[in-house]
Structures are given as C-alpha cells and as structure tokens.
Amino acid sequence: MRILIAVDGSSASDAVIQEVAARPWPKGTEMCLVTTVDPYFFTRAPLLLEEIKLKTGEGLEEGARALRDAGWTVSTNVLVSNPRHGLPKIASEWKADLIMLGSHGRGSFSRLLMGSTAQAVMRHAACSVEILRPKQKNRAERAGMRVLIPTDGSDYAQMALRSVAERPWPAGSEFLIIASQEFPVIIGEFPFYAPEQLTELAEGSEKHATESAASGAELLSNAGLRVSRQVTEPKDTPSRAILAAADSWEADLIVMGSHGRRGFDRIVLGSVSESVAMHARCSVEVIRKG
C-alpha cells in the first residue's frame, strides 16, 4: 500500500502523523510525507522561496522520523505548487493508494481547510482520500477503533467494504454497517404515485437496504472483524442519516465509496460522500479505485 501524507507543520498535521503511526497497515506499506509551498506568494522573493523550501524539508524529515521509528519506509517531498492542484498530481505520479490529510491547517494562506484544499483534493484525486480529525477526548482512551461503513449495495459501496476487509485494524476495533432506506421525493399538489405504489416502493427500498447491510456484514465477518448492522429509518437524506449514525455510535472513522447507486451525480465526487466528508465530526475516508 502506498500512502501520501499531506502536512503543513500545524497541530492538525502533527495529529495526522500520530494517527498514521498508531494504526496498523499492510506489510510492505510505503509512505511519502509531503508538504506544499505555494510559489504565488514568493514571486518577488525567489531567495526566500529557496530558504522556505530548505526549512520545510528539515521539518518534514523530523516528522518522518516518527513514522520510521514505527517501522515504515518513509520518503519526503517538498512540492512547489498550489496544494489544491499539486497534491492530486503528486499522488497520481507517485501512484498513491491513499491520501491522508488533516481537516484544518495553520494559516490563512496555507491551511488544509475543508472548503478549499481538502475539498479540492477529495474531488480531484484519482485515489482514496482520508480527512483526519482528532479523536474526541472521551474516545481517545477507547480500545481499538469504531468504523462506520454506509452501504447502498452499489459497486462503490462494495469497494469500501472490501477495502476495510482487506486491511489490518487495531485490536478491539468494532465495525457498524448502515443502510438507509430511500423514498421518492413528492413535490407539489399532484403526486405521481398512488398510495399502493408508495407502499410498494417503501417495501422495495426496505428490502434492498436490509439485503445490502446483511451482505456487507457477511463480508466483514468472513474477514474476522467484529461487525454489526443497522437499517436507518427513511426520515432524512442519506448524508444526514450517516452523520447522525456516526454521532450516536461515536464513530472514529467513516469509510464510504465515492459514489452511490445514482452514479456520477457530481462531476467528480458524489454529493453524499462529499457532504459527509465536509460535515462529519470524525475522520472520513472516501474510497476510490484507479
């Protein structure tokens, strides 16, 4: 596995390195610690740019030491580029399987901020992306991780489930699979559905959600993981149902596919996965396969 870790020297970036070092990864995993220096701010100060690159490289090596001490092969890279464009590009060139970055950074210009850099990376990276958020204090001492995996039975959801099943996880980790029922949206005074048709649609949606959750639970159970499943009531949008489930279950991480059964409802990233990644209180990993 090849993991690109984007940092900027902030406390959020330190948390990213600590989280990566604390997790188990597949044998032979390689890591690249990368930070970006946006040349736009140094167009009139090229000598200062060289000095910043040197100091940034020294800082990266210091950060890489913690990962090397944990037994991983780690390289470093100072990228002179706008981070929103440069991170997806270097991930593609390095053939990364996963990009990991914090939800916030340190400065008004360079921070990895949801809505700017992190969101752009999620939208345009060709590989999986995880937005890391620090664990809440009441969860920090809990054994293992709580990983929530939403599924709608789509190929993308299956990719997320297989990714979870194929990876090592900390001892004591728990996994919850949720599936949300969906209803057609009826707007206006002249609905197109008769009551019996709505009943049929509701029963079909519940059956599909139940089967999707059961299938996912079987996949993870066969991988030796401790898993439970849940079908949520159709009271809200899928993204809000996922966020509510993550909060109530106190999830540490949400792992989900980049798109659902409705396919490419955004140009690059599915609307549900993007909404969850932007608004979750825990870490979120959006799975893509190249």
Brief characterization of the structure:
With 290 residues, the chain is α/β, with parallel strands linked by helices. Helices cover 41% and strands 21% of the residues.
Tell me what you see in this structure.
This protein is of the alpha/beta class and 290 residues long. The chain folds into 2 domains: 2-132, HUPs (Rossmann fold); 137-287, 3-Layer(aba) Sandwich (Rossmann fold). It contains 9 helices and 10 strands. It has a 10-stranded mixed sheet, with helices on both faces. Strand 6 (146-150), helix 6 and strand 7 form a beta-alpha-beta unit. Helix 3 runs parallel beside helix 4 and helix 6 (155-166) runs parallel beside helix 7. The longest helix has 28 residues, at 195-222. The radius of gyration is 21 Å and the shape is elongated. Mean pLDDT is 82; it is low at 105-115 and 263-269.
What is this structure's SSE topology?
Elements: E1 2-6, H1 11-22, E2 30-37, H2 46-69, E3 73-80, H3 83-93, E4 98-102, H4 117-124, E5 128-132, H5 137-140, E6 146-150, H6 155-166, E7 174-180, H7 195-222, E8 226-232, H8 238-249, E9 253-257, H9 271-279, E10 283-287
Parallel strand pairs: 1-2, 1-4, 2-3, 4-5, 6-7, 6-9, 7-8, 9-10
Antiparallel strand pairs: 5-10
